[in-house]
């Protein structure tokens, strides 16, 4: 799967994009879901949770292992995607459409510190 050029990425294998209402959506990358295998459980951060960049904020479990979700940038969780919580295999099927949570960034400019698609590909040797 090609890495979407419109997204930003963390070294911890999460993606994000700004939405029209000023929030940000976050999910795990195709690379991460591929390493994990069949995803069977997602623990998203609760609405209202403070996010601290690069700190664990949730969990994704597969038949092979579990992996922490790390906050991309500082902010506050606005919403979780209940459809993905109920059917976590959506992440395997469509990793760049299956967002896990939406958040409000403390400072949108912090996103400039995230990786571009080409930088993320270089990190993962994709």
From TrEMBL:
Q: Which cofactor does it need?
A: (R)-lipoate
Its protein name is Glycine cleavage system H protein
PANTHER family recorded = GLYCINE CLEAVAGE SYSTEM H PROTEIN, GLYCINE CLEAVAGE SYSTEM H PROTEIN-RELATED
What does it do?
The glycine cleavage system catalyzes the degradation of glycine. The H protein shuttles the methylamine group of glycine from the P protein to the T protein.
- Pfam families, sorted: GCV_H
Q: Which residues carry this modification: N6-lipoyllysine?
A: 64
Q: Which UniProt keywords apply?
A: Lipoyl
SUPFAM superfamilies, alphabetized: Single hybrid motif (SSF51230)
Biological process according to GO: glycine decarboxylation via glycine cleavage system; protein lipoylation
Instruction: Note the CDD domains from the entry.
Output: GCS_H
Per the entry, the cofactor note is: Binds 1 lipoyl cofactor covalently.
The UniProt subunit note reads as follows: The glycine cleavage system is composed of four proteins: P, T, L and H.
Q: Which PROSITE patterns is this protein grouped with?
A: BIOTINYL_LIPOYL
Q: Does the keyword tRNA-binding apply?
A: no
Give any Gene Ontology cellular component.
glycine cleavage complex
Q: Which residues form the Lipoyl-binding domain?
A: 23-104
Q: What family does this chain come from, according to its entry?
A: Belongs to the GcvH family.
- InterPro entries given in the database record: Biotin_lipoyl, GCV_H, GCV_H/Fam206, GCV_H_sub, Single_hybrid_motif
